[in-house]
Amino acid sequence: MDMKHVQILMDEPLLRRLDADPEVQKLGRSEVLRRAAIDYLKRKRSREIRESYRRAYQKSRGLGAEFSGWEQEGVWPAE
């Protein structure tokens, strides 16, 4: 994998907390920040998908005459 150097700014207290973390000490700042970026992108994509479903189903007004009465049978899991 081709790695690129990036420069980020971080305030001193946050940097001290990061450097004091045992996982950061073991893996290094770069690896931990790469993992954080991957996690951020996964969570963002998941939110986008949930929002897309919400918008799609919000427009819908039921399952149609063919499935009349069945809408209340299913329960969506709570978030």
Shape: elongated
- Secondary structure tally: strands: 0
Derived from helix and strand composition plus strand pairing, the structural class reads mainly alpha
Elements, N to C (H/E): HHH
The stretches of 5 or more residues where confidence is low (pLDDT under 50) are none
Q: Helical proportion?
A: 55-70%
Q: Rg, please?
A: 22 Å
Describe it for me?
It contains three helices and no strands. It has a domain at 12-56. Helices cover 58% and strands 0% of the residues. The two termini are 36 Å apart. By secondary structure, it is an all-alpha fold.
Helices and strands, with pairings:
Layout: H1 12-20, H2 22-27, H3 29-59
Provide the descriptors you would attach to this structure in a database record.
single chain, 79 residues, mainly alpha, 3 helices, 58% helix, elongated
Short description:
The chain has 79 residues and is mainly alpha-helical. The protein has a domain at 12-56.
